[in-house]
Amino acid sequence: MRIVLSAALLMVSCLSMAQDPTVTELKNSATKVLEEDTTHITGWKKGANISLGLAQGNSSNWAAGAENNSMAINANVNLFAVYKTEKAKWVNNLDMFYALQRTSSQGTRKTDDRFDFYTKYSRTITKKWGFGVVGNFRTQFSEGFDYNQSPYELTSAFMAPGYLTIAPGFDWTPVDYFNVFLSPISARWTFVSEKYAGLGERYGLDAGKSARLEAGAFVSMVFNKDIAKNVNLRSRMDLFSNYLANPQNVDIFWTNVLTMKVNKWLGVTYNFDLIYDDDVRLFGPNSNAPRTQIKSLLSVGLTTKF
C-alpha cells in the first residue's frame, strides 16, 4: 500500500503543479496533447510520436575499467487515434518500445520490450463525468532472460505472458489533461502460449493451463501535458484488485514518458516504469516470490511527431 500511496501522491502533485499560477500560461500553449486537443470537436484525430535513441562507446587500456566497445539502441513508437461526437469519445493508443544493448564482454541483451494497446469508449453524462468501457492488452515482442542465472533462464516471450483487461465503469475528467476511469467490476485474463507453457506457473496459472481469469476492481489514471516549454509528461497508472484472491494485494502498472525537445529533430526521453503483480513470482532467493519491478531509461536521439 505504501507504493500505491506514494504513486498516487506523485500523480496528484503533478496535477497540482500544472494548476500553479506560475505555469497558467501553459494551459494555452501546452495542449499538444493530441488525445485531448480541445480544437478537436468531432470526427477522427490521428497521429504518432516516434523516437530513436543510439549510444556507442569505446575504450582502450582504461585503468578504471570499461567495456572495449558498447552500443545501445532503443525505439519508441506511440500511435493514437481518437474519434469524437457531441456525446461520445473513443480513444485508442498503442505504445511500442524496444531496446537492445551490445557489449564486448556480454554480447547482445534486450533491455526493454513492451507492446501496450489501450482503448476507451465513453459517453458524456455531465461536463466532467461519463460512462464507458476500457480495454487494455499488454505483452512483449521477444524472449526475455534472467541473466543472473547460469545458464540464462527464460522468463518471458510473446504472449508469455499476455494480459487482457475489459473494464466497464465511470470516467472522470476534471481537466483536459487528467483523467480517471473507475470500474467496480472488471475482468482480467493472463495468457501463456502453449509454446512457453512451462512459464505459466510463474505468472499465476495452474499447471497445464494456458489462461487465467480474474475479476476485480480496476482504476486507470492518465496524465498528459506539456509541463514546461518543450517538455511533455505522459503518465498512466493502472490499479487492479482481484476479488477472488488476495484483494488487498493491489496490482500496479505505472508507465511514464518524459520528453524534452531540443530542436525539431533532436530530443531527450526518460522512461520510468513500475510494476507490481502479486502473481508474477520470479524473484527472491528461490525465484518464487513477487517483487516490485522498476525500470528506467534515459535516451538522447531523434524524435518526431505527425
Tags for this entry?
single chain; about 300 residues; Outer membrane phospholipase (ompla), Chain C; two-stranded antiparallel sheet; 2 helices; about 5% helix
Précis, in short:
It contains two helices and 14 strands.
What do these coordinates show?
- The chain is mostly beta strands and 306 residues long.
- It has one domain: Outer membrane phospholipase (ompla), Chain C (Beta Barrel), CATH 2.40.230.
- The protein has helices at 2-19, 26-29; strands at residues 43-58, 69-84, 88-103, 107-124, 129-139, 144-146, 153-156, 162-175, 178-191, 211-228, 231-242, 251-261, 266-276, 293-305.
- The strands form two sheets. Strands 1-2-3-4-5-8-9-10-11-12-13-14 form a twelve-stranded antiparallel barrel.
- The model is unreliable at 1-36 (pLDDT under 50).
Principal-axes geometry comes out as flat
Lateral strand order in the biggest sheet: 1-2-3-4-5-8-9-10-11-12-13-14
Category by helix and strand content: mainly beta
The count of β-strands is 14
Distance between the termini: 40 Å
Unreliable sequence segments: 1-36
The number of distinct helices, counting runs of at least 4 residues, comes to: 2
